[in-house]
Amino acid sequence: MTIKKNKYLHMKLRIGDKVRFLNEVGEGVITRFKDKETVFVEMQDGFEIPYLCKHLVPIHTELILNPEVENMEMELETILSDSIYFIIEPDHDMPALVSDYKFYLFNSSSYNVMFSYSVKDDEYFQTLKHGELGAYQKIFLKQVKKNFFKEYAYHKIECLFYKNMHYKSQIPLAEILYINDKIMSQSTLIQHNEFKFPVYAYILKENFLDKEIVEKSITMEDMTRLKAIKEFKQPQKTSVAKQKIKDLTREIDLHIEELVDSYKNLTNYEIMSIQLERFEKELQYCISNGIKKLIVIHGVGNGKLKQEITLILKTIDDIEYYDASYKDYGYGATEVRIY
Questions:
Q1: Are residues 158 and 77 in the same domain?
Q2: Residue 39: burial class (beta carbons within 10 Å; 0-12, 13-18, 19+)
Q3: pTM: predicted TM-score of the whole model, two decimal places
Q4: CA 253 to chain centre
Q5: Which of 59, 84, 118, 157 is the most exposed place for a label (fewest CB within 10 A)?
Q6: Range of 324's domain?
Q7: Per the structure, how many domains does the chain have?
């Protein structure tokens, strides 16, 4: 008599795989490895139970399908703990022959990640890439010539972590890395089978299993600021007949005293954030409702608010903008024409 081998016995399991139990009723999701033969399976009630791999049948893997990312084959010996890395890969294993660097976000964790990647441009950051990254995946962020590497010394990475099942809440990640030639020369290159050449790896987050307090109480100061912000109210919808004869010009005054009841406790950064948020909402309302002209009253001041408004307008197609009528507004307003 021939004994048939279990076809699932040698199937490779990964963290995040949904599995069914071979010898009993039930299913769950693999959360971590105990050893080469045993994994922890999280049940629907949130409890983790160790099971032998040979007693589990994979159903499907919870992976984010993104054509820009690469799935990583992980050996059991290498999975010590969940971690997130910022990776710099040279294009040659000999430093003297390096001409390019590639930047990656490396998700060596069982969590799905919503991320944004920004670099510093003068005193502000510019977002270069954002999206979703599945468990045990990496994504290419940017390629930079060695001659221009010093212009990319500041890297800002922000991440939110989640799973498509019950999971322990994680504090969002917001890190700014400063990396220059000197720091690189003092760092150790690491050979990893996911990369063609040895890489520099910088840890952004680890110790996912540590229990941390994620919830935070709102303070009285926060409440005061929150109450001070006036609600942005959309105009009431009118009948079709009235809509046809509506005025196609809209005006918004961004002086902070027009937007909040009290601003004495607000910082300059908070004030400008409120002003820019209101401006973007007004502009979007005009674009969505066919309003052709928007007058933005920003005042003169030090010119910073007008500069920020101009940067936003430069990113939008089918509009023109210029100084509004001096007779009506002086130097403190911008007129936006929407086509």
A1: yes
A2: buried
A3: 0.48
A4: 32
A5: 59
A6: 220-338
A7: 3
